[in-house]
Design brief:
Elements (H helix, E strand, L loop, with lengths): L1 E2 L12 E6 L9 E6 L14 E5 L13 E5 L5 E5 L2 E4 L14 E3 L11 E7 L6 E9 L5 E2 L5 E2 L17 E4 L1
Antiparallel strand pairs: 1-2, 2-3, 4-5, 4-13, 5-6, 6-7, 7-8, 9-10, 11-12
Organism: Trichosporon asahii var. asahii (strain CBS 8904)
Protein name: Coagulation factor 5/8 type domain protein
């Protein structure tokens, strides 16, 4: 399965995605099928009408820590992350998928681009799999996780030098 917008990543999917059928498909013995899942109760990790402050117990949260942040749903499970400077994102290039890429503010007119969209994923405890009250922001274009001053890095549950999993775990508090 792959995300319908990027057509490459499958680590997080929204309400629309593409699945690959390999046997006994509708048109042939192999094809991609577009799938949309509609629900009356979509997952909403944030209040779209509220502003939030963003913090992390383990790291400088970079551009997100400067002012209040607003999350706007894109309609398929992803969100734009808006600061007073613009919407948080990266360019839609292969180079932008590299580790340590620093997100920056873009004009709101680019909200429909995958590099400016984010999945909000609740963090879970490794001991009991319960939500911890923090979230991770996963960039829709790169599939990498926002890690404050370290930029975008792979999701992790282990330490790697100065990179710690806690730096990816963000606390969102209504302002």
């Amino acid at each position: 399965m792959v995300d319908a917008k990027t057509a490459t990543l499958g680590n997080v999917l929204g309400k629309t995605f593409r699945a690959y059928c390999s046997f006994y498909c509708s048109q042939s013995n192999s094809e991609f099928v577009n799938i949309a899942i509609d629900t009356d109760t979509p997952y909403e990790p944030v209040d779209k009408n509220a502003e939030y402050t963003v913090s992390s117990a383990a790291a400088d949260v970079g551009i997100l820590g400067k002012d209040k942040v607003k999350f706007t749903p894109t309609g398929d499970g992803a969100y734009t992350v808006e600061t007073k400077e613009g919407i948080l994102g990266i360019d839609e290039t292969e180079q932008a998928r590299a580790w340590a890429q620093q997100p920056r503010a873009f004009d709101k007119s680019e909200a429909d681009k995958a590099g400016k969209q984010w999945w909000i994923i609740p963090s879970r405890s490794h001991e009991d799999n319960k939500e911890t009250g923090t979230v991770r922001l996963v960039n829709r274009w790169s599939g990498l996780v926002y890690s404050g001053k370290d930029g975008l890095v792979p999701a992790r549950s282990w330490e790697h030098g100065d990179l710690k999993p806690e730096a990816q775990e963000l606390t969102l508090k209504k302002a």
